[in-house]
Amino acid sequence: MDVTVPPPLPLGVLPTPLVAADRLRAALGCDPVWLKRDDLAGFGVAGNKTRALEYLLGDAVAGGADVLVTGGGPDSNFVPAAALAARVVGLDCELVVWGSAVPDTGAPDSGRPGGTPNLDLAAAAGARIRALGDDPPTRGACGALEIVDARGPGFGVASPEDRAAAHLALRTGGVVAAVTHTSGGA
User: 163 and 116 in contact (C-beta within 8 Å)?
Assistant: First the structure.
């Protein structure tokens, strides 16, 4: 099987530096210890998620995508990073998160339970967020596909393989990013 690697879309300041951990080395009494400082990747709050987002969004842009559908937990660091990355490259972003937290509207007595800081950041980046309530995380793939279907005719994930991958990834606890395409606008 041939594997095609999508072209990355530069988002971060890479490569990140290796830094000597001299105090740790001294405490352990061992040879030099080096730390990879991916927290210095330079793309918002993404940290080590920057690399994955560069390939994910590179593939999306190269394929003519106009919306990114992904998800995770309400405290996921990937969720706001994906929303910010989608915003940077001009894609809409739809997020499926488990739990009942929704972004805080800032309105007093809105009756909404309030979001987590990560969901609030994702919403501030323009992402639309769908909370699955008490449903387990494995329902996320279905929620993502429902969002795609709800966007109307002309929307669908890039291929049947992407739909299958979305289901498999969330059933196994992975974070899925299904990129959708339009064939005439929505």
Answer: no
Is position 13 within any domain?
Answer: no
For residue 104, the model assigns a pLDDT of: 56
Sort 81 into a burial class: Cβ within 10 Å, 0-12 / 13-18 / 19+.
buried
Per the structure, how many domains does the chain have?
1
The pTM (predicted TM-score) of the whole model is 0.69
pLDDT-above-90 percentage for the chain: 25
The residues that are catalytic are 76
The CA distance from 183 to 1, in Å, is 29
For 156, the domain range is: 64-181
Top-confidence residue, 71 or 82: 82
